[in-house]
Design brief:
The complex is a heterodimer. Chain A has one domain: ABC transporter involved in vitamin B12 uptake, BtuC (Orthogonal Bundle). Chain A has 15 helices and two strands. Chain A is mostly helical. A two-stranded antiparallel ribbon of chain A has the order 1-2. Helix content of chain A is 70%, strand content 1%. Chain A starts with a helix and ends in an 11-residue tail after the last helix. Chain A is globular and about 60 Å long. Chain B has one domain: ABC transporter involved in vitamin B12 uptake, BtuC (Orthogonal Bundle), CATH 1.10.3470. Classes of the chains: A mainly alpha, B mainly alpha.
């Protein structure tokens, strides 16, 4: 496909997704209800959020080559700062977003400045440690702000009326879709910018970038802040979609899940990461439904128990992918369709 | 005074657990440059398999049941560690990131499987009466399990050091930690040493999983993952690849954690350990590369 066809196809897809809430067609067995039903729209909105989140992780891991184990921290910061501003400080959604944006810029700037003084696996460990500190902080419920293990639920008046209630699910769906499109645009623009090319050069050979006379530290910090900022914004949208904040999103396991999403889709390709995030979230959600299906319940225990654990299926799928399909979904598509080799990918 | 003694010895007991997990991680990292996220899964799987194995013995002598469980946990941990290396790590020798990712997949899948099979509620361990009792030391009533853990950790430390210093495999492993390429170039089969190291790590993790069950009185599916993070911190502070370093760091980390959790506020200790790690890394940023 040449560039024009691809852009046209992409635009058609976006238009299709925009009008989705008016299309009542069911797509069994992919979705249990019609596409316009609130349940389907809510699932799609969650998929979009995780697609955007996976893209933000791919910027730092796939393009700048920095293996961070603390990405959950920035997503959780977006979720919790918004939730706290809405529930405890009684801000409007716009004010809460303003506060979150400030935090989402300062937090990764400070932590990134510290973590990037070490590299490789030590970088992974320090980021993991900071994320763990964030997780402990949330669980300790300081000043009763985070709700500890219980998390925070938004009251009925915390969000604008247009975002509350089952009937308004389509508004939330459009917000999530708009956020995904915007994040994709920022992602494509950033990795193709001059700085984005330096990130990829650092991934390949950091010393050489330094010899050329550029300061890798500043470029890495830029990638870290951008990626973390986008993750925090994904957290804000997630908060609006879910209507509550749960400490699950702060855990190290959540970062590992993000890693699974990006690797599932294909490290170092933006569309692959988005696809990975969407497919993972979809499977995670649908496999729970599948687990309760009557056909599965009648199986013997040694088959039923593993099959009713989504994380087990996804974990095994992930291991198989890492072993046999190194490029993830994006790599598999590229191998099946060698003609697109020259034009596909984001480099 | 009695509180200080209690905190100190309880801290050492916790440190013993950290050390058992960290020693395997540290050896694996030192020799193979693999960050083994599946280590927490080995810990959990071994503890649960051992718990299942001793259930039929519940009406007999609890000491016999406990000892049977201990052996089962050690064997399970070792076998799982070996299988993990042979089937999942070995095909990825050329792809370091792939090795880490595979262990991440194992960690997620194994813990999910345990949760599916046993549920997420804690399971009570069968303990001999001695382990539920406590001993009076310097005015403090210290639970006996803490003493047991400290003794086991010291024994494992001694055994590991003996193995590394006195045996041929130990020599290969120590040389491999120093310079893996040179060891291969001398015609020594480093890959077999990789399997040995993973098996030892699995045994230590299995032991840690069972003893953690003894320490807390029950086994639960998420303990392994949360302990793993502190073990990572211990490994980094102690110096990657150094068993003695891990032992010292485990004691320091656990004691700091216990004291601050008690005297400041619950959670402050956990938090300060993270700060300790950041400080350790930033004050000597080159340590890991030469270890």
């Amino acid at each position: 496909m040449n560039r024009a066809t691809r852009i046209a196809a992409l635009a058609a897809l976006v238009v299709l997704l925009i009008v989705m809430p008016w299309i009542g067609v069911p797509i069994p067995p992919l979705f249990s209800e019609a596409m316009s039903a609130p349940g389907s729209l809510n699932l799609l909105a969650l998929c979009f959020v995780f697609g955007a989140l996976a893209l933000s992780y791919d910027i730092i891991f796939g393009f700048a080559g920095l293996l961070s184990f603390g990405h959950a921290l920035y997503f959780a910061a977006g979720v919790y700062v918004t939730a706290i501003a809405l529930t405890h400080w009684h801000c409007t959604l716009l004010q809460a977003m303003g506060i979150t944006i400030v935090v989402a810029l300062i937090l990764p700037l400070v932590i990134g400045a510290v973590c990037l003084r070490v590299r490789d696996i030590q970088f992974a460990m320090v980021t993991l440690a900071f994320a763990q500190a964030g997780s402990i902080l949330v669980m300790q419920n300081p000043f009763g702000l985070t709700g500890g293990e219980e998390g925070l639920a938004l009251g009925p008046s915390a969000l604008p009326a247009a975002l509350v209630g089952v009937a308004n699910t389509r508004n939330i769906y459009w917000i999530a879709l708009a956020f995904l499109v915007l994040t994709c645009a920022i992602g494509v623009w950033s990795v193709n910018s001059a700085a984005g090319r330096v990130w990829q050069a650092i991934r390949e050979n950091e010393r050489r970038v330094a010899v050329i006379g550029l300061n890798p530290y500043l470029y890495k910090l830029g990638a870290f802040v951008l990626s973390s900022f986008l993750a925090s914004m994904a957290g804000v949208v997630y908060m609006v979609v879910e209507g509550s904040a749960s400490p699950d999103v702060t855990t190290a396991s959540f970062t590992l899940v993000l890693l699974v999403m990006v690797v599932l889709g294909g490290v170092g390709t933006l569309w692959g990461a988005v696809l990975g995030g969407i497919v993972y979230e979809y499977l995670d959600f649908r496999l729970v439904v599948l687990a309760n299906a009557s056909g599965l319940q009648s199986l013997p225990a040694f088959l039923r128990v593993p099959l009713s654990e989504p994380l087990f299926i996804l974990g095994v799928l992930f291991i198989i992918l890492v072993l046999f399909v190194p490029g993830g979904l994006a790599g598999a598509v590229r191998r099946l369709n060698p003609a697109s080799l020259s034009s596909s990918g984001s480099h | 005074m009695s509180t200080v003694v209690l905190l100190l010895l309880t801290g050492l007991g916790l440190g013993a657990l950290y050390f058992l997990i960290a020693s395997g991680l540290s050896l694996i990292w030192g020799l193979m440059r693999v960050l083994n996220f599946a280590h927490g899964a080995l810990f959990t799987v071994a503890a649960y398999v051992a718990w299942s194995a001793v259930q039929p013995l519940a009406n007999g002598d609890p000491l016999v049941a406990w000892l049977v469980g201990l052996v089962v946990a050690i064997v399970t941990g070792g076998v799982c560690g070996m299988l993990l290396e042979v089937f999942l790590i070995r095909p990825l020798y050329a792809r370091p990131i792939g090795q880490i990712l595979v262990t991440v997949g194992v960690a997620l899948a194994a813990v999910a499987l345990i949760e599916g099979a046993y549920g997420s509620d804690p399971k009570q361990m069968i303990l001999p009466p001695w382990m539920s009792a406590s001993t009076h030391i310097l005015g403090a009533d210290l639970p006996n399990t803490r003493l047991l853990l400290i003794a086991v950790a010291l024994a494992v430390l001694a055994a590991l050091l003996m193995f590394l210093r006195r045996t041929r495999y130990g020599l290969v492993i120590r040389a491999g930690v120093e310079n893996r390429a040179m060891v291969s170039a001398l015609g020594i089969n480093v890959e077999r040493a990789f399997t040995v190291v993973f098996t030892i790590g699995g045994i230590a993790a299995g032991l840690a999983g069972y003893l953690a069950g003894t320490y807390f009185g029950y086994v639960d599916p998420t303990r392994g993952t949360s302990m793993l993070i502190f073990a990572f911190i211990v490994v980094v502070i102690g110096g990657l690849g150094s068993v003695t370093g891990s032992a010292i760091a485990a004691a320091v980390v656990a004691i700091v954690q216990q004291f601050l959790n008690f005297y400041a506020a619950p959670g402050v200790g956990d938090f300060s350990v993270v700060i300790l790690l950041a400080a350790a890394l930033l004050l000597r940023p080159r340590s890991g590369e030469s270890a």
